[in-house]
Fold this protein.
Amino acid sequence: MSDFFKDIPAISYVGPDSDAEFGFKHYNKDEVVLGKRLEDHLRFAVAWWHSFAWEGGDPFGGQTFVRPWHPQDSMKNARIKADVAFEMFRILDVPYYCWHDADVRPETGNFADNLKTLNEITDYMLEKQAQTGIKLLWGTANLFSHRRWMAGASTNPDPEVFAFAAATVKSCLDATHKLGGENYVLWGGREGYETLLNTDMKQELDHMGRFLNMVVDYKHKIGFKGTILVEPKPQEPSKHQYDYDAATCFGFLQKYGLEKEVKLNLEQGHAILAGHSFEHEIATAAALGVFGSIDMNRNDYQSGWDTDQFPNNVPEVALAYYEILKAGGFTTGGTNFDAKIRRQSIDPADLILAHMGAMDVCARGLKAAAALLDSGEMEAAKKARYAGWDTPAAKAMLGSSLDAIAAEVLAKDIRPEPRSGRQERLENLWNRFV
Ligand code: XUL
Ligand code: CO
């Protein structure tokens, strides 16, 4: 037990009419929506990096947070950090959490000691999981912060860095497996380039494809049943990142024979950076059969960088969950808050209130999306729009050929009659539910 959050009560459902500062107004984990409890729909997870490892720095200034686990360079402080993390998970009553190796153990500079400290701290976390019932949604390796990764991990021109990355991912996959993690994530912040003048893109892509195949092979070797996920992001920290967006990732997976083995972890802020909406990315992944999990946050629409703010826009979140529900909901995936409080939010209570509020926003969004889906009105309108394709003649055309179709158009003098797309009506319908 730690007293970092002393005087902050455990958060429970108080309902929309309450003005209690600490209490869920919309997230009642046992509420059943479309036959499933809200907790099982949303599968919330806390991200270790933003809440506990990040110290409040930005490009213009350093640390603003002063925490009992600083400096983060000893195992003693890593344990204090783990105690506080699990205390926060209990207060929030979240079922899951996520980590990078670099968040949970100190960086020692060499692989042997990094391995030792990772194994030690994850043994401690395993005990904490057993005591609290809190589970691991996913683990991942930080292959971007340390200077060894500056020119990439699996795409590095130096084979020794590729080797260090392989060893590190193996250790993180082992630790994720030990902790019963339900997924394993790879986000390639440095898998990309700054200038083509020094970059062999074809070679780098081939190495990245080979690396991911090794990850999948190793997963099967150790019997890890979780899903391997890659996380698209177009840029930042690299100028050009190979995992640009959902469609680019799918093309990459297909080229390297991985489209049945690997799915996507999609992040709201990354979608915005790629010039997409979050729901577009989710719908794309679902259509291509690779939807896996989400990193929920919100980006600033003016700033142009990855602000990783907590979500606070119900209509936006509802659009995302509508696509997720249509895709059948999460299987091994969930809603990970890859979100950080602002650097002026230095009180322990800020961490709790940020997550609590975000969980309420997601619950409101999901409930609105579920009600609309349940009404069937939007899907009926969509079905009506494509009804022409239900006829045997239209279906047969898809098995036909260009010249045969051309002959038919001439013979029947086909003149298509344009019909309204009814967008505004559907937007009004949407607005009735959100
Ligand atoms: C970076 C990002 C990462 C991944 C995990 O933008 O989203 O935190 O989620 O490495
Ligand atoms: Co993320």
Notes: The domain at 32-375 is CATH 3.20.20.150 (TIM Barrel).
